[in-house]
Write a structure and sequence with these properties.
406 residues; alpha+beta; Adenine-n6-DNA-methyltransferase TaqI, Chain A, domain 2; Helix Hairpins; 3 domains; five-stranded mixed beta sheet; four-stranded antiparallel beta sheet; coiled coil; hydrolase; nuclease
């Protein structure tokens, strides 16, 4: 940080950039195996690519037929915008890197802006055009209802800052450093999840035994270990933190969030701490939760409870039902098309592998719980650094905080 520095200047994008031609190739014209030229597709810009896109990345597909290659080859420093989206993510962009080693063009629903040579440090534009400040100046120009779009003329009418080149380099380096940290945490989380899933597969099937346990296992129907609870409580006994409906259960075993709507029922199904709640609507979404409180839920949420805590550990049973095998079983025994619903009688017959020793059940549950806690702690750290990055972008890319120039 420094005191007095050279001022930032702003110029219209039209005065500094030229528009380059892209193509209109659809996704079925691309592949991830081989080709002479890569294609930067707008859908990937919207959801996959970061602020700076290295064309050496395996996430950038090839154009399958060389005769389909149209548009101008991308250069380092080009900025590729997604000009269409189904929401206000329209205008998401990435700066191109690695173009000297990979031929690539921009594809369907993209706008390519090429800056004048030497004006911007590598990476600065990628971070700036993805800042909230820039996005907020661009959104008023977006048009459309069901699909939102922005034109090249709209982009050219906007203004962009030109900090001193050394400061641009310092900003890009600072943000790239925290991006590298975020990426390393994402890789670590993915590795831990893979480890956890592999270990769960072995421990919950008896393929691997924990030290000190060698007793028998048995296969039981779900209804032998868990009962479907149907007791109800008045809606006055719950609030937004204790009501669980299919709407506020998160997919892919993500748990639950607060319910922000009005509960229209007079009574709701009761659940207690240690119960297993499973959304029986669209079971392929894998909505399941191990309750850590008392509350009420909708009739579309099944409440499963251990029939005997001395024989069947509820946390262990939750882990068994969190496996993909269970969701596939319920999905295969569902009826309905738009909103398929699991067959309760079939669910009761689902086969569960369970150690006869309750101690082994609890030990397995604890091992996996410890891994889950470790993953969650790393995810919290990742969220923290993402928030730090947003704050840094807000301050550095508006000039509120200035970095030292060498």
């Amino acid at each position: 940080m420094v005191g007095e520095q050279n001022p930032w200047h702003t110029r219209r994008i039209a005065d500094l950039f030229s528009v380059k031609k892209s193509n209109t190739l659809s996704r079925d014209k691309l592949n991830y195996e081989q080709g002479a030229c890569k294609d930067v597709h707008y859908g990937d810009v919207l959801v996959k690519y970061g602020c700076v896109l290295d064309l050496a990345s395996s996430d950038v597909p090839y154009i399958t037929n060389n005769d389909d290659v149209t548009g101008e080859y991308l250069c380092d420093g080009d900025v590729v915008f997604a000009d269409t989206a189904e929401d206000l993510s329209v205008g998401k962009a990435c700066e191109i890197a690695g173009a000297s080693e990979r031929k690539a063009v921009a594809g369907l629903h993209t706008i390519v802006l090429r800056p004048q040579p030497g004006l911007f440090a590598s990476g600065f534009l990628g971070y700036y055009v993805n800042s909230r400040h820039f996005h907020e100046t661009m959104i008023p120009f977006a048009h459309g209802t069901k699909v939102t779009s922005i034109s090249s003329n709209d982009l050219l009418s906007l203004v962009i800052p030109i900090p001193p080149r050394p400061e641009q380099e310092a900003i890009a380096k600072t943000l790239d450093d925290i991006d590298s940290l975020i990426e390393s945490l994402e890789i670590l989380i993915a590795k831990k999840r893979d480890l956890r899933e592999g270990l769960a597969q072995e421990l919950l099937t008896g393929a691997r035994r924990l030290p000190g346990f060698d007793g028998p296992w048995h296969q039981v129907n779900l209804q032998d270990a868990l009962e479907l609870c149907t007791e109800t409580i008045p809606v006055s006994d719950i609030d937004e933190t204790t009501y669980v409906g299919t709407e506020n259960m998160l997919k892919d075993k993500g748990g639950v969030v607060s319910f922000d709507k009005h509960v229209t029922y007079a009574n709701v199904r009761e659940y207690l701490p240690g119960d297993i709640l499973f959304s029986n609507i669209r079971p392929y979404l894998k909505k399941i939760w191990f309750a850590d409180r008392s509350g009420g839920c909708s009739n579309d949420v099944l409440v499963l409870r251990s029939v005997d805590a001395n024989l069947y550990d509820s946390h262990y049973c939750y882990l068994v039902l969190s496996r993909d095998d269970f969701f596939a079983f319920v999905t295969n025994n569902s009826s309905g098309t738009k909103m398929p619903r699991g067959d309760k009688e079939a669910i009761k017959t689902y086969q569960m592998a369970i150690p006869k020793d309750i101690g082994e059940q609890r030990a397995i549950a604890q091992v996996l719980a410890d891994l889950d806690n470790e993953i969650q702690e790393t995810e919290r750290k990742l969220d923290k650094y993402k928030q730090v990055k947003q704050g840094m972008m807000r301050e550095l890319l508006t000039g509120r905080i200035r970095l030292a120039q060498e």
